[in-house]
Amino acid sequence: MSNEKYTEDHEWLRPEEDGTVTVGITDYAQEQLGDIVFIELPETGASFEADSEMAIVESVKAAGDVKIPLAGEVLEVNERLVDEPELVNSDPIGEGWFIKISINSIDDLNSLMDESQYQEFISDL
Amino acid sequence: MKNSQSEELLKTPLYSLHNELNARMVAFAGYEMPVQYPTGIRNEHDYTRNTASLFDISHMGQIEIKGDNVAQALETLVPSEICGLQTHHQRYTVFTNDNGGILDDLMVTRLTDSFLLVVNAACKIQDFQYLKKQLNNISGIEWVDAALLAVQGPDAQRIMSQFNNSLAEMPFLSAMQTRIDGIDCLVHRCGYTGEDGYEISVSAGHAEQLARHLLRDERLKPAGLGARDSLRLEAGLCLYGHDLDESSTPIEADLNWVVAKKYRSDTAQPTNFPGADIILSQVHNGAGRIRRGFLPDSKMPVREGATIFNSNGEKAGIITSGGYGQSIGKPVCMGYLDIKYEDSNDYHVNIRGKDISLIKTPLPFVRHRYYK
Lengths: 125, 372
What we know:
The complex is a heterodimer.
Chain A: E1 5-6, E2 11-15, E3 21-25, H1 27-33, E4 36-40, E5 47-48, E6 53-59, E7 63-67, E8 72-77, H2 80-83, H3 87-90, E9 99-103, H4 115-123
Antiparallel strand pairs in A: 1-2, 2-3, 3-9, 4-6, 5-8, 6-7, 8-9
Chain B: E1 10-11, H1 15-20, E2 24-28, E3 31-36, H2 41-50, E4 52-56, E5 61-66, H3 70-74, E6 89-96, E7 102-110, E8 115-119, H4 124-134, E9 140-143, E10 146-152, H5 156-161, E11 175-180, E12 183-188, E13 197-203, H6 204-215, E14 220-222, H7 225-234, H8 261-264, H9 276-285, E15 289-296, E16 307-310, E17 315-325, E18 330-338, E19 347-351, E20 354-361
Helix pairs in contact in B: 2-7
C-alpha cells in the first residue's frame, strides 16, 4: 500500500523514513501534459511558503506549474530531470520525482488526499 | 468558424478510427480532432521525419469553383498568379484585405474544368461567404464533401507508389486523379511538415476505408495535430491565426514570393487584388516588421505571445509560434521583428522573470525535403 498523499493540482508527496518528503507530479498530470521537454526546479536550500510555485513543467503542448499547499525547505532536487525531463512521463512517481523537502510537521500531510481519494477525485474530472 | 463550448463539435469521417486507435481528441476549429495517439507527439514527430505518418486534416475546407474566367476572378482576391497556373498544378497563396492583411492562407489547384481551394478550418465559413460575395458572377462555388488525408515523410513516396507507380514521380505541387483500393482519390504532392508527402482528397463516405487501406502498410503510422504543429514550426511554415492574421501582410510574413512576378517587375501589370498598393509598396520599400525564426538559448520553450526585447530593453517584436523542435532537440520559435532592430542580433524574451537570449536563425530550422 503506497503512502503517497495527493493534491488537487496533481502533485504527490511521499513521507520518507528519514522524515523528508519527496514531491512529484502524478501519472494523471504527466498524461494530461503530454511529452515533457523542460523542467525548471528550485534551488536546493530554498525555503518556500505554502502554495508557492516550486517548479515549472513544459510539455510539447503547454506549461504547468507545481505548487504544494505546505511551507518548507528544499533539501534536494532531481538533477536528472534537467537532461531527462521525459523521466516524468515514463516514471512519474519513481525516477521522475522533482524535489525532496522538509516540512514543519509530517502531520500536515494528513489534510491531503490519499490514493483512493485522489483516484476518485480524478475520475470526476 | 467560431466555436463555443456549448456548440456540438463536428466530427471528421475518421472519428471512429481515431477512437479505435486510442487517439486523444481535442476541440480544434469546431472539430473534435486527434492531437496525439498513444505513442505521443515526440514519437509521432520523429516517425514522420524518419518514415511516414498519416494525418487526418479533414477539418480543412475544400471549395470547388466552376465557371468562366474563374482564374481572372480569383486574381481579384489574391496577389498570386492564377491565370498562368497549369492544369493539375497547385499554388500557395493568401486572401488579402484592403490593408494588405491576410484573411486566410490557402492552396489553389487548377483542375480540368474547375479550381479547388483548400482553406483553413477556422476560416472556412468566412472564406466561403467571402467567395460567394466577391465572385457573385460565378455561380459554381461549392463545398466539396470530402475528407483530406496527409501522408508525410521520407517513405511516403514508396508507400504511395505501390497504389500507382506514377504517384512516385508526380512533381511537388501537382495533382493527380487516381484510384486507391478502388476508391477515387485526388492526390496532391504537398504537405505541411517540410517532408516529401501527399494530401489525398477522398469522398467522406470512402475516407475510412481509404485510411484503413493506407495503414495496412506497416511503415505508415497515424500522427495527430500536435506533431503536425511541431513539424510545421520546424519547417518554418506559418499557422494562420498565429503567424498570419488580418493585421499581417504577406511581405511582413516574409512570403514575398506569393506576390506574382507580373506585379513585381518593372513593367508591372495592373493589379486588382485587395491591398495591392500597400503590398507592392512593401515589396519595393520593405515592411516595418518582418517574420523571423529564433532559437532560444535555453531548454525552456518560448511560446506565442512573448515580447521580444533588444539589448536596451526596448520592445523589438513578438513571438507568434513557439514550441519544442523535436528534430533539432531544442526549443524553436518565430515571430515578428521590428525592422529597426533587424540588424542587431541581441534579442531576448523574459519568461517568469528570467531573460532568455534569442538567436535569430534563418528559416526553416529543419531543411525542407520536398520531392523535386
